[in-house]
Amino acid sequence: DTSSTHPTSQPPTPLAWSEARSRLHDVLRQYASLSSREHALAAAAKSREERQASNCQTTPVSDSGADQTFQNEADEREGVSDPNNHGIKRTRLQRLERWFDEAWLAHEMDMVLALLLSVGLLILSIVSHHQRKSAPSSALSGGLNPRADLSVYKSQMAASVLFVTGSVFSILICWRRKVTSRRDSYVGRRRIVLSFLNKLNKWEEAEGEGTERPHVYSYDQAAKEEAVQISGTALTDVYSVYRLSNDAASVWGQWHKIPSLLLVNGDFISLQVGDIAPANCALVPIVDSKGAKVDATTLWSLHLTAGERFTGTAVTFSTLPAGRCTLKPENSQELLELCNRTNIFVVTETPLVDALAQGHGTQKSPQICRKVHAFRRALQILSIFTLILTFILIFVRPTSSDLSLLLPLPLLASLATLPVCTPVYVFFLEVFGTARILTTAHPFSSRTSSTGILDNQESTATNARSLFWRYTLNAVFSRLFKNENTRHVRSILTRCIVCLCSCGRRRKDRKSVLDDMDDLIRIPPASTYLLEKLGVITALTLVDDELACEPYSTPQQLLIPSGNGLKLLDLCPNFGDEDMELDSVDERGDDESRSKRRPKSFSDSSHDSDSDDDDDESDEGEIYQHVSAPKRTLQALRRRYKKTATVLSGKKNFSRSGRIDKYGALLEENEVIFEDPLWWQYLPSLKCIGLACALMEYENAADSTRNVAGNKEEKTAQSLDPQGSKSQRSDPVQSATSSLVDHICHRHEQSQLMSLANCIGFSTSENSLGKMGDLSPFSPIKHLHFVATRLLHSRLSLDRHAIGLEESRSWGLLDVDATSIIIQDHRSKAYQLLTVGDARVIADCCTDAWQGENSTISPLSAADRRTVLETSKNWALSDLDVAAFSYTPVPNTMEERISGARRIKDKNTVEASEARSYLVDNRTLNEVGISGSSSKNWVGDWSLVKNQIFLGLLGSAVIPSREIEPILEACTDAGVRFVYFSPRNMRRTKELASQMGIDVSWNCAISLRPLDGQADPHRMTSTYADWDVNAKLPHGVEDVKKHLEEVDNVPLLVSLFTDATKNNTAEMLDVFQTYHDTVLTIGLSHLSQNECIFSTADMAIGVDILCEDFDPDSESSSGRDKNVEMATSDGILSRKYSRASVLPDETLFVSSIVAHSCILNLRGTATISHIPDIIASGRAALDASSVAGLYAITGYVSYGFMVLFCPFSVTTSIPFVPALGSLLFLQFLLPSLGLSLAASNADTQSMDRVPPKNDESIVFARGEGARLFQHTCIRALIPAIAAHFVHLIGFGSLMLIFERRFLFAGDCGTLSGDLNWRHVARCDAVRQYSGPVKDWAGSLMLAELALCLVVLSSSFLSRTELIKGKNPWRANPLWGWGFLASLLLILFYLIATLDNGVWGALPWYFYVVAIIMPSLGVMTSELVKRSDQKQEYRAEKLRRLQFETRLGMWSPKESRFLHDDNSSP
User: Fold this and answer.
1) What's the rounded Cα separation, in Å, for the pair 1354 and 1363?
2) Pairing of strands 549-562, 565-573
3) pTM given for the model
4) Beta strand pairing call for 818-825 and 778-788
5) Phi and psi for 924 in degrees, rounded to 5?
6) Which side of the chain, N or C, has fewer Cβ within a 10 Å radius?
């Protein structure tokens, strides 16, 4: 980035959207101009700098250590064993195998040998044809002595040319695939950049011409442009950025949420204490409320580098008055200081530059590749063996002098197992498997499905065949070509595929498919090994909380005052009538245990699951009444999620900010009820709580709507006010600062408050009271926001891992400790004050408590106050969002002041200076009393909030996403270990993990934070047991590695890792891979820090949640005509977005760049529920491809055996093998039928098997390699023997009919003698025969081999499941059509090569044998499969046992330190 902005004495100015996009365009254009070599050199230089920087921070390695490492590597190369590592000395055979792999197969010498043998066969055919043509047929021609018909040699030449062509084509395919996949990371990113550059160019051209923008589709011509504010915070790599409007005549600016990779140099961003700088940036001095600039030199951090955390200065709040004070929204500097010291920074380097320069991690080769390599080695050895042995047998055995028909046999035998067309066959197997997986993922990963959910009509309209062949075409071009020059060819071929697959469909449906031709999933790079690894995933890791949790919290418990002290009411989801009947059944079993359970405090009950013993026998006194056990609430939650996971996962169409149908779908999913049937007795106080909740959330939604409208009005007013524009142009920092205050003062939405209000009985739907429902009689007058600096001190010093989920969602906003709203009841004209917020602030303002069951107000005792504060603290430590409620009627004197100061602008808004105030409590802890301080500080607006009445305390839990539990269950059944990396500490993660279904007992979790000799204050403690100390689990990645080396493998069995960061998560993934796990990672695709995790994992799936912010409103789209709605190329329905905001294509570009190494980029959080389907598709594709490969190998080996058995034939004449028929069999029939097997359905038990580990030192499991080779040979023997048996009968029978005079001339018998085919076979005169019967017999032999293998393919529809009782055509229709086509091909071949009289000359038992032998081959294959099934069943049982155990596999392991201690004197 050559145009980086450096801080100067001149104040920086913010960028406009058009200028920012222009700078981003320049960066992308510069990247696209680099060649692959230049990019590789730049990436290598960057990685070298990173290694040098990391080495400077670590202890340098001594020269002796480096020499020892070099010596160890040299010893390993020479085969010297290391006694300390218990190495085994390499044998000569192993070294020979290694040399063969490195010197022969690594340089593709087997393909070169195949080409040389094909050329040799061509030369031999040309010489034979030349000698036969130049010499008379009656005399010996010398040399090869060819005596066969001239057409035989012509067919040999044609077959030889095709063999040479196939070898050359295979070499070219392998070479192109290697060249393309050598830097496929760069190739993939470059394709994404070029695609986005094309869109930017189109936008610029459209803007220059003044025409309609190509990305805009509006339902109505009068539709207004919508500036989209995407959801997210700086914790999720979405930063607040200030940009000006695109209008050159306007200087109006606004703060937007923008992903970090869309930032450019010169952008204004806001950072608060704890934020990580997205790029190199410099501080912009802001302006306080008095117009004085802050001295930037007083700040500790003037410049931040990319990845550096902003720490700010020591928080003293010296600018605030001591004690209690009141701030207005105009106090910019003070409010920014209260918002975790928010400051404005200017970006000095475009972060996309470093992101594009990132390299790709190295990947371990999957086990299937090593198996293929082992088969390749075996086939290479077999080809050399058959070549030499066949040559020897031909010259040792007395044979015919006609060598033209004998010398091709060794070449054909060797070419059968050499890679002539096998590389192309394997290439298309990988392409078909990839296309099959992508076709499965298309409905929820393509761009047209913006949320990844398609309705039934769309899914039925999707042409699966068309998608499969389109993905096949794209995969072929992606694997063979780097650039996009083939786009035109692909477009033509795609149209042909769509038209062929859409035959019989309506023209309208066909047109819709043609319009979406470019809407395909990006083909994953070859280095990801999509087909090879997806089917053998052993660990699935989730690395982001946004995917693990729902975007809302659910009310769990409500603590309210009562006549007998504080009472705890449990809340549970509303199951409906059917679910209540199920609950009644569950309650019968719980009544007895619940009757014996004594009530206790939440602080005690929260540790029940941590201890091995029961804490119910505690002698501690009762603090408050507990209506029901928390365990029942947890069971109810789990039961509800399990029941509704499948039903509601496809209906999750609201954005994470809750803007879409907020009071409809979201509240319906978050509906709760009280478990206590007598909860209505406390309704007097509960009504006040419900009113406070409903007003707070309803006003919050109304404020958001008014803010959007206000921003548009402000934009219009500023464009019409030249003085205002001039002032803003003269001081853009002041404009950005004032706009930033409005930006951070938005209140974070809390849907759990509205859920509680609905549970109590409040409704915002229109009713007889008014349009706002039950809230219609109340008018909000004033909002008072509390900020306590002592609590802000604790938040600033709070550890990053101790931040709760609800706190992280409101990150970047002014975190007020409490909010009071003054309302007027139009019925009584009275004013009321309702407060919701932190219990510590509200307890300081409360003097009384409301006992709901008897409507009595009594003083709030010190004991109850301590209980409330302790309960609030315990709930917060358990990651519950805690909200306290209080209330007070406004005195008459205050009513007069409020009504006199009220200035109405319209029916819904009041003057901003009077509608909102910030009450700042700048007292120290020593100044704060238990019951509040003296009344002299309660002045101004503070006098409105004193002497309140405490109403209750609400605890809301962040619940896991409904997609998680089905995924965890499916993974458990499939033998895939689910691992959750939580960025929060153990105490905050435990309850969420428990609701997910993760075991939280022994060996339950590992903290990735190193202790460094200190105690972990965040671990779960209990009276009798400790969550992780009793299990003796390590802390930190280094301790995990040490534990694995010296103790056992328990850390590999843990499903929960806490205190995770992106770096230590990547390190743990590397640990998993070191211990042979194949890891699939799921994470946010727009989070740039996830790129290192995606590159480290074996496979990764990104999830694009930003696309949810561009979804249409369900209400607005439901009333439209279904025929009018259309999907654009970006998947956005009937929307028009402003260029002065983030566009869908830009967020898609960010997700694609971060997830360039991912196999898929899913659209929306609901799509992660389909991950088990994707894994199942991967297993089915891998199994089918493996079986198809085994079938092809069996066919090639069987042909080689057939040719090898020719010199061993019992006939005196060595059988003739037609070269052209061999070509058709080896390069057309066998590969095409094998490719059809790649479409086989998965086994019924496919997702119930535990996949094997990926140990690079293991090629085959114990006994698997020998069993596979043996079974392959057994399957290949039957067709080869059957072919020779048919040849024996056919050759003798045809000689008796067509060459009887030749037999008589050769003293094989008389013309009228009783001869049979057995006498003919042993006649010596037949040895010199080269007539047409020999050619016909060879064709019959080859046809029988083909028929046996075609029928044998039915046994390869499944590797382990028997064909008995199954319909093969239903299991694989494509194979059924291929089976019929293969039989027709064999028939046409025989018709073309045999004369008319041959069919009638063959005896009846010839046809019986020809039909029975294929069935015998299938029976033999099924017997072999049954034996293989037993072995696989035993191996799978062992893997299942290892998977389900929670004990160490090698526990306890002897420690070398123990030996050192024992050996020391």
Assistant:
1) 8
2) antiparallel
3) 0.85
4) antiparallel
5) -85, 170
6) C
Question: Per-residue pLDDT tens for 669-715?
Answer: 778 889 888 888 888 889 999 999 988 877 665 555 445 444 544 44
b/e sequence 241-264, b meaning 16+ C-beta within 10 Å = bbbbbbeeebbbbbbbbbbbbbbb
Three-state secondary structure readout of 518-548 = CCCCCCCCHHHCHHHHHCCCCEEEECCHHHH
718-732, 1059-1073, 1299-1313: range with highest mean pLDDT: 1059-1073
Integer Cα distance of 507 and 495 in angstroms: 14
Of 660, 656, 519, nearest in space to 1105 by CA: 656
Report CA-CA distances (Å) from 175 to 172, 402, 405, 525, 874.
Answer: 5, 40, 35, 16, 64
Between CA 1441 and CA 597 the distance in angstroms is 37
- Rg of the chain over Cα atoms, rounded to whole angstroms, equals 39
The pLDDT value recorded for residue 666 is 61
- Pick from 993, 1031, 987, 1036: which is nearest to 1012 by CA? 1036
Angle at 1295 between CA 1293 and CA 1301, to 5 degrees: 135
Contact 263, 347 (CB under 8 A): yes
Cα torsion 1357, 1361, 1364, 1365 to 10°: value is -90
Burial of 56 (0-12, 13-18, 19+ CB in 10 A): exposed
Q: Which residues pair with 712 in a beta bridge?
A: none
Q: Tell me the three state secondary structure of residue 787.
A: strand
CB–CB of 5/347 below 8 Å? yes
H-run or E-run covering 834: strand 830-837
3-state SS string over 992-1051? Answer: HHHHHCCCCCCCCCEECCCCCCCCCCCCCECCCCECCCCCCCCECHHHHHHHHHHCCCHH
d(CA 331, CA 738): 9
Q: Which of 679, 686, 753, 656 is nearest to 955 (CA)?
A: 753
pLDDT tier for residue 596 given thresholds of 50, 70 and 90: very low
Q: How distant, in Å, are the alpha carbons of 876, 1159, 1180, 1183, 1372 from that of 1242? A: 48, 21, 4, 7, 10
The strand pair at 916-922 and 778-788 is best described as parallel
* Distance from chain centroid for Cα 664: 30
SS3 label, residue 883: strand
Take residue 1305 and report the two structure tokens written for it: 């001339």
Sequence-distant (≥ 6) Cβ neighbours of residue 848 within 8 angstroms: 857, 858, 859, 860, 947, 948, 949, 950
Structure tokens at 1253: 């580990």
Q: What share of the chain is helix, strand, coil (3-state, %, to 5)?
A: 55, 10, 35
> Tokens 């590789």 sit at which residue?
40
Instruction: Out of 104-118, 280-294, 1236-1250, 1339-1353, give the one with best mean pLDDT.
Output: 1339-1353
Q: Classify residue 1440 as exposed, middle or buried by CB count within 10 Å of its CB (0-12, 13-18, 19+).
A: middle
Write the single-letter amino acid at 362. T
CA distance 921 to 85: 65
Whole-number Å distance between alpha carbons of 426 and 435: 14
Q: In whole angstroms, give the CA distance from residue 1218 to residue 1224.
A: 10
Long-range Cβ contacts of 231-234 (<8 Å, 24+ apart): 231/257, 231/655, 231/656, 231/657, 231/1105, 231/1106, 231/1108, 231/1109, 232/257, 232/259, 232/1086, 232/1106, 233/808, 233/809, 233/810, 233/811, 233/812, 234/271, 234/272, 234/275, 234/276, 234/811, 234/812
The pLDDT tens digits of the residues spanning 1004-1020 come to 788 888 876 565 555 55
Q: Please list the residues that pair with 540 across neighbouring strands.
A: 978, 1080
Residue 540 dihedral angles phi and psi, to the nearest 5°: -115, 120
CB 1302 within 8 A of CB 1353: no
- Separation of alpha carbons 660 and 649, rounded Å: 16
Is the Cβ–Cβ distance between 958 and 805 less than 8 Å?
A: yes
Q: Which of 287, 261, 283 is nearest to 272 (CA)?
A: 283
